[in-house]
Amino acid sequence: MDAPVDTLHRPLRELRISVTDRCNFRCPYCMPKEQFGSKYHFLPRSSLLSFEEIHRIVRIFASLGVRKLRLTGGEPLLRRDLDRLIRMLAEIPQIDDLSLTTNGALLTREAARRLKEAGLQRISISLDTLDEEVFQAMNGVQFPLRRVLQAIEHAAAVGLAPIKVNMVVKRGVNDQAILPMARHFRGSGQILRFIEYMDVGNSNDWCSDAVLPSTELLEKIHPEFPLEALPSNHPGEVAKRWRYVDGGGEIGVITSVTEPFCEGCTRARISAAGMLHTCLFASHGHDLRAPLRSDAPDEQLRQLIGGWWEQREDRYSALRASQNTIPAKIEMSYIGG
């Protein structure tokens, strides 16, 4: 079949795959420890897609037009031998952008080197503040800040660039860290991205009052470091780009709540259990694992994936304010960020 487009004429260009539903952090906006405690039942290993199954899925998605691939979690570096999977995926010729999102806790210099040598091109590292006390409270496990800063250095040292540093901004929790974060990463060559606090999943007690609009955020930075807008790198890019007027680099803002970008979304997501989700805020998915494990031929899988995408009409963020009732949504730790 030809490259599919959905009901809103959006092509399929990007794919995110969660390689595990487990994480070693308990960030309150994603995996709050009250819900994901010691008795929480994660997926058994047999339920996770194997590396061979992931490789096959990506090949098929690539044949349907996917060019950008990102590995997520949970925390993807908890998946053993991840560099072997990256090596397999890097050999798929149509994939020209292979990246990974991590909290940095396991990103040693040696781990970064293995990922780079396997074919990983870029990396995004989550960091919500430079305040030690706030950082440990936000990661939920008292993980030290210096270890994440070291992870960023390790990634830079091996050439996983440009590094994107993702900061989820929650009003009244870490919004005081906006300027310190801007000061720290300005001139570093790393791209700091501010992400509006989103209502992903059902367990993070989201409320709109905790959202700091990106317009306010930029107003905090601009008086000290004047900014000017940059064009998008490619169609469907979710971050709005800004650069420091004096040449100190660039930042990004992801405005999913206050300025939704659903009309340009070209991204599909696959959970660690092999469910295809066509929106970050999805309430259901399509089972790919079952046909994979019943030896369905590639063409049958292509038809399934293409058909599901052509039926896609997701635009949750654009409709958020007008919805009277909010449906139950897949947790971010399950679907990937």
List the helices and strands and how they pair.
Layout: E1 14-18, H1 51-63, E2 68-72, H2 82-90, E3 97-102, H3 109-118, E4 122-126, H4 132-139, H5 145-158, E5 164-169, H6 178-185, E6 191-196, H7 214-221, E7 227-229, E8 240-244, E9 250-254, E10 267-270, E11 275-277, E12 286-287, H8 289-293, H9 298-310, H10 316-319, H11 332-335
Parallel strand pairs: 1-2, 1-10, 2-3, 3-4, 4-5, 5-6, 6-9
Antiparallel strand pairs: 7-8, 8-9, 10-11, 11-12
Task: Report, as a whole number of angstroms, the end-to-end distance.
Answer: 29 Å
CATH class call: Alpha Beta
Total number of strands: 12
The CATH architecture designation is Alpha-Beta Barrel
Supply the helix-strand structural class.
alpha/beta
Shape: globular
| Cα gyration radius (Å) | 19 Å
Largest sheet: 12 strands, mixed
Helix content: 25-40%
State the domain count: 1
Largest beta sheet: strand ordering: 7-8-9-6-5-4-3-2-1-10-11-12
- Write the CATH homologous superfamily: Aldolase class I
Helix count equals 11
> Which residue ranges are poorly predicted, with pLDDT under 50 across at least 5 consecutive positions?
none
Strand content: 15-25%
CATH fold assignment:
TIM Barrel
> Mean pLDDT score, rounded?
93
Order of helices and strands: EHEHEHEHHEHEHEEEEEEHHHH
